[in-house]
DNA sequence: TATTGTTATACTCTATAACTATA
DNA sequence: TATAGTTATAGAGTATAACAATA
């Protein structure tokens, strides 16, 4: 009885969740510490802060971007003083990209601004509504890991 | 006692909500009906479907993009057969941008794919968790309107 | 003269293909 | 010969400035 592509949506509210998520994300992305940074550059810095030093190949895979495009992004970030490139001593073909102190600072400031914007909106909600969003954040994280 | 910029976050879970939202949105944006369409083009089509015909100026404002950039986006969408441009008969400087049937179809197919992806993830959750996300979607919409 | 939209031009971001260095 | 990274080159997307048409 199961179908790979059901004719009717199993969870009609998925459309509501999709719309709300895309619009909130769109609004959040407007808040950043350095307006000169592109979305791609901002995202790479955030990923490095979250996961630690990475190879250019790992970054291009995560960002769904070609290796040459990531290379250009890394050139810009290095030029701006936000990342360092360190060749591996084991295998000299490999490079490790890591955040500088300035890079870490810009990531943290961007997060601070986004959170500040969000907290102002949360202030206008009831305690129950805030509680519901807290739970939702946890569930969404679980959903993404599945 | 109130401060415009509080020293400590009033709602520490804002960071969780921010992270979950940005990552879910990132994943959702990968699903689209026409891989040739850029994110900006996809977003313009969705906006036209949601709000009806709009002027180029209104679209560039909503997309936070310059009028010439929007003009180029509209050229591409018109070339692809997804939008029409109709001059106003009242004020001949003004243009109305509207979806063609093909444009409407590609918006709906993109939404269908995103919802299908999301519904598969929702299937792996409990009924309580799905209920929590339903409520969250409503609250987020309210939050964005504030 | 002001406004709406478009064209001119230049710069950034992206991609594919080719190249370098190392293994 | 294969792999990680980079460079070469070209195609979109974006911006500011200038222009055209209309009011």
UniProtKB/TrEMBL annotation, chains A, B:
Segments forming domain HTH marR-type: 10-145
One of the record's GO molecular function terms: DNA-binding transcription factor activity
Superkingdom of the source species: Bacteria
InterPro entries linked to this entry: HTH-type_Bedaq_tolerance, HTH_MarR-typ, WH-like_DNA-bd_sf, WH_DNA-bd_sf
Protein name per its UniProtKB record: MarR family transcriptional regulator
Species classification: Bacteria, Bacillati, Actinomycetota, Actinomycetes, Micrococcales
């Amino acid at each position: 009885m199961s179908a790979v592509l059901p004719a009717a949506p199993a969870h009609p509210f998925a459309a509501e969740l999709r719309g709300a998520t895309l619009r909130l994300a769109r609004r959040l992305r407007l808040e950043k510490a350095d307006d000169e940074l592109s979305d791609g550059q901002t995202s790479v810095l955030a990923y490095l802060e979250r996961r630690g030093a990475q190879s250019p190949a790992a970054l291009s895979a995560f960002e769904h971007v070609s290796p040459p495009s990531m290379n250009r992004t890394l050139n810009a970030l290095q030029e701006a003083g936000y990342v360092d490139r360190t060749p591996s001593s084991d295998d000299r073909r490999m490079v490790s990209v890591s955040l500088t102190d300035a890079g870490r600072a810009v990531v943290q400031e961007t997060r601070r601004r986004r959170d500040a914007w969000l907290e102002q909106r949360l202030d206008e909600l009831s305690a129950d509504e805030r509680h519901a969003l807290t739970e939702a954040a946890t569930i969404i994280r679980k959903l993404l890991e599945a």
